[in-house]
Automatic annotation (TrEMBL), chain A:
Pfam families in alphabetical order: Proton_antipo_M
Naturally occurring in which organism (per UniProt): Actinoallomurus bryophytorum
Domain NADH:quinone oxidoreductase/Mrp antiporter transmembrane intervals: 121-408
Protein name: Multisubunit sodium/proton antiporter MrpD subunit
Membership in a protein family: Belongs to the CPA3 antiporters (TC 2.A.63) subunit D family.
Subcellular location: Cell membrane; Membrane
InterPro entries found in the cross-reference section: CPA3_Na-H_Antiporter_D, ND/Mrp_TM
GO CC aspect terms: plasma membrane
TrEMBL record, chain B:
Membrane topology: Multi-pass membrane protein
Cellular compartments annotated: Cell membrane
Keyword Transmembrane helix listed: yes
GO cellular component terms listed in the entry, alphabetical order: plasma membrane
Record family assignment: Belongs to the CPA3 antiporters (TC 2.A.63) subunit B family.
InterPro entries with a match to the protein in the record: CPA3_antiporter_subunitB, MnhB
The name this protein goes by in its record: Multisubunit sodium/proton antiporter MrpB subunit
Organism the protein comes from: Actinoallomurus bryophytorum
Length: 560, 226
């Protein structure tokens, strides 16, 4: 019953808030939402401590019922979601003017949807909660609807993600027609040994929606548009956990349902292709940005690309690495967005050049950017470092090169922001936005109702704690992570050890290179890259064309 | 990207998608076959619990969790309409009277038809909700009928009257509380088909009214600040 309570709690309180929020004082709304998410964290912690459990809803059992599967990976992921949601709620305490508690309602629905999405053992249900997650995310992106940019970003997000979801639904339809089953495990049993083309196409279609969510290249275009306009606490949830859930869903769908049907070699090639394209393109685009939220958004694309490579290697050590990486990245990235939100609140802009040297007195936010940059680079003993070391170890030399490059580029961009904004380094270059980034220098309204005389601790402490957690997560014993992925992969538990010479050396190398990228960037050695900017045009027609092309490429990679 | 470049990428993608769909369709089971794995599992289960309507048993019992997700999607969409279509700083909302959206010049026959159909439509909605566990119909369908019924008043030409009989806070609260009740029923007491149909009907009806209300406001009353 505890799992049902955990799923039902955020949803029920969300409906209560939606019904009564109009009449409740803001303090009560904040308290109720925060307490609910804290209680959810406790419940999930109890489930995690209790070990693997499967609950059949309504007592129907195998055949027609829907299971909730709480293994260590899914529960751990749900717990990560909850922790980031808690931080986002605390940040939003003093954050912005509220419309009838709808923000809190949506955050609770979002949290519940993400938890239900990872915990359900039913493929169709994962689609339903994928949709719930998406609808809430569109609303949260467009929350500050007074600016046209915001509506534009939310609309692009909505169109691209909904199209992806239709592909997923079509794929589910195909699998259902073939097997008459909807449970992950039941489908896996039926499909074992079925190597027909149709099953492979179904797999490609199902994963398309998940890869859109995971922002794999060329499905990634929506992400930066949405992140640039979404309120900061929402960006924490998007970049910290929502995007990563797409990778989780791909891993789960393949390993549980399609492993016996679609050849591992083809899956490996396609996931690694999409993942490394995202890791590299995201890294390069990240360095080219001056709008700090967009910069962080592209770094998410790059890191989630690495995560996808980790899954795509289809090796138990790499999977353990991916799990580790996900948790570490969630802390670091959500923390960095808190820092960006602090800048937006102070100066009503997130343009790196406009902010030159203006953050000197903001020691806490500066520390978040410095430590966050270290976390993205993968400084030992961060969770990102430990995860990346494992992925690199099982992937060989070229994955090592890819990992170091992606971390150095993204962390370099963040460190450049730290140096320029918080240390006043480099020559000032205000005002000249690239034509492709018209929103970069434009004045933004602060997200708070009125400018606070000084930043309250509730807007910074969650960021510091999240980044620190991300930086220390590598100290968790490898065996714990290894055992966690065991029921997920059905392979004997690995005992991954990231503390190897190569692992530590690659972490250190990425940190050094990141500083190099930062210093080069300060000196103005940032290429114009007009072609890349034109590609990311903000035109939703382009995005849809690339989405269709991406599905075709996926199909070609899987079938040839 | 240039329109030409976009077209090339789209043509590549579209062709690929077409080929993938054809390949997939070739693997589908033949039309009118005798193998119905899901039906064979679900029917005995539904009958074993003495359900009069297998569809309701699937919707509200065996797969109640799906319906829970769908209910919440509906609620979230209505909330999204409220939040995105709200009057923002650069806009102002007029009172309905300012636009003489009073009783409009419509034919008496149309007005009379609207008023006559209103109680009948409402009754039909309630009937569809209430008999959902026995006959085709149920909360979703009945809720849509209930929600649209009161807009007959608008079609009869009286927007202010419509605005009076649908106070937004009440419908917001009704929608949300019904969704909350459904969450509790679906997770704790799945199979209470009548009660679940009723709350679904309430939620869908309120959500339809709420969403349409927001669009009406946006189209009729909200304009750029002058």
């Amino acid at each position: 019953m505890i799992l049902q309570i955990a799923i039902g709690l955020p949803f029920t309180v969300a409906t209560l808030l939606a019904a009564t929020g109009r009449w409740l004082p803001r303090v009560a709304v904040d308290a109720l939402a925060t307490l609910t998410v804290s209680a959810l964290a406790v419940l999930l912690g109890v489930v995690l401590a209790g070990g693997d459990t499967t609950v059949w809803l309504g007592g129907w059992g195998e055949g027609v019922g829907i299971p909730l599967v709480a293994d260590e990976v899914s529960t751990g992921l749900a717990l990560t979601v909850t922790v980031v949601a808690l931080a986002a709620l605390v940040v939003s305490w003093r954050y912005f003017a509220e419309v009838q508690a709808i923000f809190h309602t949506l955050v609770l629905l979002f949290t519940g949807a993400m938890c239900a999405f990872v915990l359900t053992g039913d493929l169709f249900d994962s689609f339903v909660f994928f949709e719930l997650m998406s609808v809430v995310a569109y609303a949260l992106t467009g929350y500050q609807s007074e600016e046209p940019d915001t509506v534009h970003g939310a609309l692009n997000f909505g169109i691209v993600n909904s199209l992806g979801a239709y592909f997923t639904l079509m794929g589910i339809g195909l699998v259902y027609a073939r097997t008459g089953q909807l449970g992950f495990v039941a489908i896996g049993r039926q499909l074992h040994g079925d190597h027909s083309t149709m099953v492979t196409v179904a797999f490609a279609l199902i994963c398309t929606g998940f890869l859109v969510k995971a922002a794999a290249v060329p499905f990634h275009f929506w992400l930066a548009d949405a992140h640039a306009v979404a309120p900061t606490p929402v960006c924490m949830l998007f970049s910290g956990v929502m995007v990563e859930l797409g990778v989780y869903a791909v891993a789960r769908t393949y390993l549980t349902s399609f492993a016996g049907a679609v050849p591992a070699g083809a899956v490996r090639v396609s996931l690694i292709t999409f993942g490394s394209a995202a890791a590299l393109l995201g890294g390069v685009m990240c360095v080219l940005q001056r709008h700090i939220k967009r910069l962080l958004a592209y770094s998410t694309i790059s890191h989630v690309g690495l995560l996808l490579v980790g899954v795509g290697l289809l090796h138990e050590d790499a999977l353990a690495g991916a799990a580790w990486y996900l948790a570490g990245h969630a802390g670091v990235k959500a923390g960095l967005f808190v820092g960006a939100g602090a800048l937006l609140n102070r100066f009503e802009t997130v343009d790196e050049h406009d902010l030159h040297g203006r953050g000197r007195s903001m020691h806490v936010a500066g520390t978040i950017f410095l430590l966050g940059g270290m976390g993205l680079a993968g400084l030992p003993p961060s969770g990102t470092w430990a995860g990346k070391a494992l992925i690199e170890e099982s992937g060989g030399h070229w994955v090592l090169a890819l990992g170091v490059t992606a971390s150095a580029l993204t962390a370099g961009a963040v460190l450049r922001v730290w140096l320029r904004v918080f240390r006043g380094a480099g020559p000032p270059r205000p005002g000249e936005a690239e034509p492709s980034q018209p929103d970069a220098t434009r004045h933004k309204d602060a997200e708070t109702e009125f400018k606070l005389s000084r930043l309250p601790w509730t807007m910074l402490a969650p960021g510091v704690l999240l980044v620190l957690a991300g930086l220390l997560l590598g100290l968790v014993p490898g065996g714990v992570i290894g055992r966690a992925v065991e029921p997920f992969t059905h392979l004997p538990g690995p005992a991954p050890a990231p503390w190897t010479v190569t692992g530590v050396a690659s972490g250190a190398l990425a940190v050094v290179l990141a500083f190099a990228v930062a210093v080069f960037g300060l000196r103005g050695h940032v290429p114009r890259a007009a072609l890349l900017h034109r590609l990311h045009s903000g035109h939703v027609g382009d995005y849809v064309a690339w989405l269709a092309a991406g599905v075709t490429i996926f199909g070609l990679l899987l079938l040839t | 990207m240039s329109p030409r470049g976009r077209l090339i990428v789209l043509a590549f993608g579209g062709t690929g998608l077409a080929v993938l769909f054809i390949l997939a369709a070739l693997g589908l089971p033949g039309f009118g076959g005798t193998s119905h794995p899901y039906g064979q599992r679900t029917l005995p289960n539904a009958v074993a619990r003495h359900t009069p309507n297998v569809i309701s048993s699937i919707n509200f019992d065996q797969r109640a969790f799906d319906t829970l997700g769908e209910e919440l999607i509906l609620m979230a969409s209505a909330l999204a309409a409220v939040v995105i279509l709200r009057t923002v700083r650069a806009e102002q909302e007029d009172a309905a009277g300012e636009h003489s959206y009073g009783p409009a010049q419509v034919y008496d026959a149309l007005r009379l038809t609207g008023y006559l159909l209103l109680p009948v439509t409402l009754m039909t909605g309630v009937y569809i909700v209430a008999h959902g566990y026995l006959s085709p119909g149920g909360g979703f369908q009945g809720g849509v009928i209930l929600g649209s019924a009161i807009h007959l008043i608008y079609l009869s030409g009286d927007y202010p009257a419509l605005a009076r009989i649908r106070p937004i806070p009440v419908f917001e609260a009704g929608e949300a509380l019904a969704a909350g009740a459904f969450v509790i029923l679906a997770l704790g007491f799945a199979g209470q088909v009548t009660a679940m149909n009723a709350v679904v009907g309430l939620e869908v009806g309120c959500a339809v009214v709420l969403t349409l209300a927001k669009f009406f406001e946006q189209a009729l009353l909200v304009r750029k600040q002058t």
